[in-house]
From TrEMBL:
Residue span, HTH tetR-type domain: 10-70
Protein name stated in the entry: TetR/AcrR family transcriptional regulator
Lineage: Bacteria, Bacillati, Actinomycetota, Actinomycetes, Pseudonocardiales
Keyword vocabulary terms for this entry: DNA-binding
DNA-binding region, residue range(s): 33-52
PROSITE patterns in the cross-refs: HTH_TETR_1, HTH_TETR_2
Keyword DNA-binding belongs to the record: yes
Domain of life: Bacteria
Source organism: Saccharothrix lopnurensis
SUPFAM superfamilies per record: Homeodomain-like, Tetracyclin repressor-like, C-terminal domain
UniProt keyword annotation of Thylakoid present: no
Pfam families: TetR_N
InterPro entries: DNA-bd_HTH_TetR-type_CS, Homeodomain-like_sf, HTH-type_TetR-like_transc_reg, HTH_TetR, Tet_transcr_reg_TetR-rel_C_sf
Amino acid sequence: MPRVSQDHLDARRRQILDGARTCFARFGYEGATVRRLEEATGLSRGAIFHHFRDKESLFLALAEDDALRMAEVVAEQGLVQVMRDLLSAPAPTGDAEHPADWLGTRLEVSRRLRTDPEFRARWAERSRQLTDATRQRLERQREAGNLRDDVDVDVLTSFLELVLEGLVSHLAMGLPADDLEPVLDLVEESVRRHRRTG
């Protein structure tokens, strides 16, 4: 029997994660049944659970994958850009796919953090990636003279993370988001260093 190449396994795993992202965004964790996961991925339950032990492991892998991609955006462009990406993402209906659509996963992570202590414990380590990436980006910005120096970097990191969580809650409630770009401009401006003139 020929061995399956690592490239094929990686592509299959990506196919499962992409389909699962759509499914979890559309139906939530509880509503993402195995049958719906099969439909969303185009694969059988055997193929899905060959790569992931169970639905919880699949969701955690998806959330971790999204957190890693968010951390990459933070490293390059900052946490406010992640927020802008969340605003520009299509509504989590599963009708539109977007490579940076983390909203559905992020909403479900936030919900499960509130209601599932076991998930909260498993997620704690993974969420540190985003915090670390944010802190490192802010430290680089401070060294470059672009970040205000009258507030500790840890405080600024917490501030930005609280704004992110507030934005996620706002979007989770289905409140209008059309007018939030100026709010994010204000958030960005509030952490910048202001040079005195005159």
